[in-house]
Amino acid sequence: MSLSFLRGLLVATCFGMLAGQAQAATLSADLKPEAGTLKLGVQPWLGYGQWYVAEDQGLFEANGLNKVELINFNEDKDMNAALASGRIDAGNLATHTAMAMVAAGLPVKIVLLLDQSTSADALIADASVKTLADLKGKSVAYEEGTTSDILLHSALAKAGMSLADVKPVPMPASSAGSALLAGQVPAAVTYEPYLSAAARQGANIHTLYQGSDDAGLISDVLVVREDVLKQRPGQVLALLKSWDAAYTHFQAQPEQGRAIIAKGVGADVGELDSAFAGVQFYSLADNQRELQGSFVGDTWQHIIKAAGNAGILPQPIDPEQILDTRFVDTLK
């Protein structure tokens, strides 16, 4: 989503909304969730999978959230618009997308680090493209403004090229792999479960570049609107407890957890072994370490630089502008 579009949404739909850092009442670990439905935006991405586990295992209710509505989106721009307009309370986004939203003035905060992709985001190609250098002059399908966009820029930079050296073919990540299979493009950037689907159906499709080739670049976070942080801090705290309970359940029963997540993203669990291996989920304990350590240091700066080079983030964002760690800290 472009910066100008995000600003337009802010003016059109968020005029008069609270700005600046939300200041909820003093938090305590036993703060009770407020009444009402919490609307959470998701996409069919494995990294958001613990929400499906929480829903399936009744963990939202176990933590006092009587109603959590998981609302599915196919493209980042649609979820961004829903957050801007207040149609959803919270959303699962790529870190650089959250940065761009705050840079545009949208009142959201990051409250939880969800996952990092190592091989579950990738640039894939047919037999005509053997190396990154072979992309020169060729069409590449990818979703603009997303993790696919950043990964493509990273891959091209590694080969001494830029976006000007290829022919961009913008489309949803869910369609990019299909376009490659159909012979419409020789290369595409997408993520799981679409990568596994493309690999199964195309014998000559191979990986050119993936998240681990630029460690730390591709990660996802949970953002919450500032008015929700202020008015319903108990719901937010319960949401984080539910994620961690789901993570614990997943670690104890990985086969069941994988089956639940596969169903949630619309895939066959038997076809996602390599996909799950390419995603690292973060627990609350991981968050308490990372949000005071490397994630807000070198990794943060690396993402800012990559997003800036991709034209997604026009200005740097400091962690204190966007992070609200009170909820993670309260649950130590």
TrEMBL record:
Q: Does the keyword Transport apply?
A: yes
Q: Which UniProt keyword terms apply here?
A: Signal, Transport
* Stretches assigned to the SsuA/THI5-like domain: 51-256
Checking Pfam families in the record gives: NMT1
User: Does the keyword section mention Nucleotide-binding?
Assistant: no
What is the name of this protein? ABC transporter substrate-binding protein
What family does the Swiss-Prot or TrEMBL record give for this protein? Answer: Belongs to the bacterial solute-binding protein SsuA/TauA family.
The listed locations are: Periplasm
This protein's source sits in the domain of life called: Bacteria
Q: Which residues form the signal peptide?
A: 1-24
* Stored Gene3D superfamilies: Periplasmic binding protein-like II
